[in-house]
Amino acid sequence: MSPRSPSVNEELRRRSRERILQATVELVDTRGYEATTLGDIAERAGSARGLISYYFPGKRQLLQAAVHRLMHLTLEGALEREPRSEDGRERMARAIDAILGLAATRPTLMRTHMAGILQAEGFVQCEEQQRLAFLLRDTVTRYGSADVDTDYPMLRALLMGAVVAVLLPGAKMPLARLRSELFHRYGLDWEAGTPPDGGPPDGTPVVRPSAGRRAPTAGGQDSGQSSKSK
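Predicted structure:
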């Protein structure tokens, strides 16, 4: 039997890693972080326990990579779903809805993820996080940002804050209100993206920007408007 080629070995490693990440999402989402062991994950993924340690330095890093992969796949699916749109505002709306939707549908998983990020190690710079970052930066670019290096971190911060607000025990904010505030900031019509049932909350402005309107900067000001004209 001839040895496997390097490309075949690489594909097998990729599939094995993805099974581990998927198993992590499934188990933490149902059992919680503390009740999920690396042995449980290995068993669910059909992998050796030592293989997890080969790919990931620890359980917290594994969870972050797994959730970043889920966020990337969810965001990618939202941006590319039919009817596909190249309109920057529609793509921004879909991106916001995708991330808020994860907070609403997977609260245990996302709450655990956010708690881990706020610990000392912060973001894990893994390939899954980089893929997610690329999609969000691309969304900001297509939206029409004149300063992506400033506006991308701002969008990321706003989405993280909104996720925390949806999940905060004892002081949760309604998802529709948070969506309304984000849509207003970015000049998006309520009907863009995937609007939730029940319509906009009271007081939500109806935004129907003209095709010629330019994207706001991180400070909320249209990029084509000078501070003197405010």
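Summary: Residues 210-214, 223-230 have pLDDT under 50 and may be disordered.
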